[in-house]
Amino acid sequence: MSVAETSSRARTRRRLDADRLLTLACIGLPLLGLILFFAYPMVIVFLRSITVGDSYGLGNYTEVLGSSGFWRATRHSLAMGGATTALSVFLGFIIAHGLYRCAFRGKWLIRSVIVLPLLAPSLVQALGLIFLLGRNGVISRMLGVEIEIYGFWGLLIANTLYALPQAVMIIGAALVLLDARTYEAAEVMGAPPWRQFRDLTLPAARFGILNAAFVCFTITITDFGNAAVIGGDYSVLATEIYSQVVGQRNFNMGAVVGIMLLLPTVISYSIERQAMKRQQAGQVTGQEPYRPSFAPLRDISMAALSLLICAGIVSVIGIVVYASFVTLWPYNMALSPKHYDITLAGGYSSLWMTVVISLAAAAGGTIAVFLLGLGLRRLPKAVAQPIQILAAMPAAVPGMVLGLAYILTFNSTATPLYLLYGTAALIAIINFYHYHTQSFLTLMTGFRQLPLALEEAANSLGAGLGRTARDIVVPFIAPMLVSVFFFLFMRSMVTLSAVVFLTTPDLSVAAVTIMRLDDAGLTSQAAAFSTCVMAVVCLAVLSMKAVLALLRRRGGNRGAA
Amino acid sequence: MYLTVRDATKTYGNFTALDRVSIEIEKGEFVCLLGPSGCGKTTLLRLIAGLTELDGGTITLEDATLSDLPARKRGFGIVFQSYSLFPNMTVAENIGYGLKIRGVQKDDIAARVQELLALVKLPQVADNLPGQLSGGQQQRIALARAIAVDPRVLLLDEPLSALDAKVRSVLRDEIRQVQRSLGIPTLMVTHDQEEALALADKIICMNHGVVVQAGTPEDLYHRPATRFVAEFMGISNLLSADPVARHFPDLMSTRPASEDSYLACIRPEQIGVTPSETGAAVVRSISFLGNLRRLEVDGPAGPLWVETHGGSPYRPGDRVELSIAPEACTWVVDDTAGTGAVSA
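Predict the joint structure of the above. Result:
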């Protein structure tokens, strides 16, 4: 009998046992979700961009490309992206270098302050700047000068504050990779500190800096919240889509601008992914962490710079909290809680709705990426790879574009998906798919640390897929699951760009309410509402820390018993 | 025959990991799969475990086919090189996990766990987490976990390779002892020929996805069938027919037919060496290996390895006489053609 014959016989004999069905379900359900709630809407938005009347054509593109408004917004977006990137990477490097390559006390303070902007909707930075530097701002009045904060400069500062945490984290991660032995080798070979910095630290941070630059650029040109509040007449692509869709009800033109905005983000994201791979390739195990010794000139100046930047962040966020308690800014500075009585229709209902939506997005999303990761391990590489690429794609799509794609898809009676339109479920779904990539990649890192041999050992002992998942996989990656859950919860609490098109007068979310309050001139109430959102998110951060500590302690205690 | 693999074939794209491999294991037998990395030995073990799917061929256990049985239903025990204890479970939970899945009563599991901990000589660690144990201890627990369910076959995938030399030799003896006392048919994958020689009832030597030779450790060491086996199973002197005929004509009598492709294989300890002022060979270098000395000797037939026990009077440059008994020579097929040097 030939080899071919035996192998075909072996194949037909393979039964569909329970584990195989379970694996198929693990892959199938999340994959169906990705197709229905990511790939399909993206196809729709593309098709709408080339729909002219009843047929297809490039008419919309020529119209958009011929309009001066579009070119101005594009110029503005690119200039803003470039300036924000340069500034936040520069400041981010200073802070990361201070945190990981210098010796001074109080690093925990810098570490906590730096993530503050991530805990609030992006428009909070803008609000804070208005309270500080606006016409009635604290600093403007103190100095007695009129600062024009609406426009380029205000937006630049707000965006930089928003992008800075990402820059610090990415550059820091790159610096940490260079371990103590490398510096010791250089020291023994006679390299003075400045040479060690130039020849070791900088090259090590190279990919980190590049990576951070792309991330900051993408964040900036896709952000809507800051641009809407402090951009003023400085129109950017994100606000351009908003005005096309919401202002002029011109969905096809909005789709065109969306596709144009997609181009730079896709390019930037794919370069960033390549850089990330090269950085990971350089990783080695068994590192000796670098412990810097105190060098007065370097460390005092680095600490001072870092603290200065942190002071800026704290004042911008802090002023929002302070202003929310001021009776009548800036005339009656007495404190009162009256702005917490929201006068806009609906009051706090959107806040509670956002909490519910965020919990749903976090729970459903965590389960979905867990099933996907579990199933992907059991697929041949040739099948797993395209699914992995699809799962990592949503990060390249700006929230505005995804949101636009959702109304075009779900506000159409052509498919039963219409039933989802206008429901809180759809907002939970868009939040999950908007942040799908980060959740998926985080969990995949956890799965990569789980040796395949553990699952194989359980399998040989008689455990099926369900049992292995429960007894072996979940306990092993529990910290990652917790992180993903809270990540999705926090992003869903504060995101604005993706959901701005999906809210209705009856169904709103917190970030949209803040924007409406600000639009209505109720700036102090916007500050109060922002403070409430930040309180919820801070509570979530504390809960996450507590749960993670509990997980660690349980492992430790059981070991000591 | 207890476990039979017939014509097992496995390909990954264009790479053939296993090409119609057939092996057999008898009841209670300890079989070693020996070969260099990439020879297909681990693939074969994983096929038997059910962790990888067969592309062709059959695997049968006592005449029942295993091919469509998933790993979890085969009732085998497996120990990996990386210990692979479940980090979230205590030692006792690890060992009892297979029994728990089989629905065994709690008290019975506890009793069995104690018994197994005693068997692997670690009675005190039941409540520890794997991370608190040394590598050698973890591997003993992994062994206990694998045999807890009375496996029909025990599969060991390089179980000693991650351990340091001292622990390795102790654990090697213990694995042998446990296997003997329980009589579990065992298949172990290793690339270490010393380990295979010490442990196995039968060694299956593999290369490039095929079985090169199977037999007892003595067979493979003293009567290798091919040059690959001769070189893999320790140091050997390999000489082609011409120099043998000229300088050691006695050895030609054992050569099969008159095949020119055969090489004479002589183990270094089989060569007699005596100091002689008029000897045709010269000692070039000496390595002291504790219990023996290995000499590199330049002779008329080319350089040869010679091993001697006891205090050696030799110094580099000494002239010596070499002698080889005809029965000490095995003729092997040259299956690694094109490697140039004749002497190992």
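The radius of gyration of chain A is 25 Å.
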